[in-house]
């Protein structure tokens, strides 16, 4: 006996687990989804099985459905049971629902017809009642019910035994697999033991090597300790020498700071005298350049003259454009007068001739006048627009040039005022310097004539005068720098 499983998606039945049971002479499909095995019944045998089960007691709808579903399986079971819901008026229903005593059924001396169980080839278990003659009394009905109950329960028990045998075969196969897995695990365990032994031997060899290296390391460490003590002593000696050298360096730095101020003062004096000399040379050069033709003042004068000439030219161009505009306006008025005269003559000419010819000619004349007037207006407007744009550009240029000229004139006036102030300041400083020099000469003469005590006083005055003269020279250099910056 063999079993094959079939899922619900393949057979089209939902929530069922169908398995094919291969018996010696036939095959049966059964549902194994519940605890009780139920055979599957095809469509031609469903009515027969339902009639047999329902005809035993003619129970209600729920009871019959429960009885059928506990033993068999097929789709749309409620559709088959619906016609049998209204069978209470049938004579068989009434006969089956009568109450019979048991002593009528106990006597089994009479003969009864044979009831056989047929198993079809289309995998269906069906029960057929083949009673040939009608029953004389109710004994046959009781025997029939008992036989039906037995023959319905027998295949279920057989199916259960078949499933149990299959489960046992499956368990045996699983036990064989588990035995094979155990053998494989034992083999692996032996291989692991061999592998662990190899690694333990390797670990022992490595431990020996590490022990030897550790001994060698301890020896080298002792040697390095001796060398370290020697190097520390050398470092201490060198540190003492470095401290002595640092003391000498500090003394030299103090001397450098002591002489640094003196050097800086001398350097500042030399730089001040150099700047004074350069400033004097630059002032002399600047005065020469300004006086020459290629100087800034001369260039500014030539630029002003050139701008004035340009301004006069633009004025003339503006006047000529205004005259052109007046001529254009006059020409436009003449054209308008000529057109009005022509229209007046055409009206008179129309009145003299026929209506048709007059209309055609009038249309032609009118079209020509329109074309001429359009051309005139286009030309006049275009010329006017161009002239107006040119005039506006010229006016804008003239205003811009005027503003530039005014700015240049103001800058020239400011520069001249600054130059005059600088010249006056220079003259005043030179006069003061000359007066101080004359006083210094007079003091020198007096010092030569006076006694030693007086000589001491004169030296003090000379020192004061020299200080004042140095201050004046410094002020002069600042003034010259300021003048150069302003220029």
Describe what you observe in this structure.
InterPro entries: CCDC40, DUF7041, T_SNARE_dom. This is t-SNARE coiled-coil homology domain-containing protein. The protein has 487 residues and is mostly helical. The chain folds into two domains: 174 residues, Endonuclease III, domain 1, CATH 1.10.340; 195 residues. It contains ten helices and six strands, in the order E-H-E-E-E-H-H-H-H-H-E-E-H-H-H-H. A four-stranded antiparallel beta sheet has the order 1-2-3-4. A two-stranded antiparallel sheet has the order 5-6. A hairpin with a 5-residue loop joins strand 5 and strand 6. Helix 7 packs across helix 10, helix 8 packs antiparallel against helix 9 and helix 9 packs antiparallel against helix 10. The radius of gyration is 71 Å and the shape is flat. The N terminus is likely disordered.
Question: How are the strands of the biggest sheet laid out side by side?
Answer: 1-2-3-4
The 3D shape can be described as flat
Question: Count of helical segments?
Answer: 10
Unreliable spans are 1-13, 99-136, 451-457
User: Which class best fits the helix and strand makeup?
Assistant: mainly alpha
Beta-strand content estimate: under 5%
Q: Write down the secondary-structure element order.
A: EHEEEHHHHHEEHHHH
Helix share bin: over 70%
Q: Looking at the chains present, what oligomeric state does this protein adopt?
A: single chain
Computed over alpha carbons, the radius of gyration is 71 Å
How would you sum up the major sheet?
Answer: 4 strands, antiparallel
Count of discrete domains: 2
Distance from N terminus to C terminus (CA atoms, Å) equals 127 Å
- The total of beta strands comes to 6
Mean pLDDT over all positions? 72
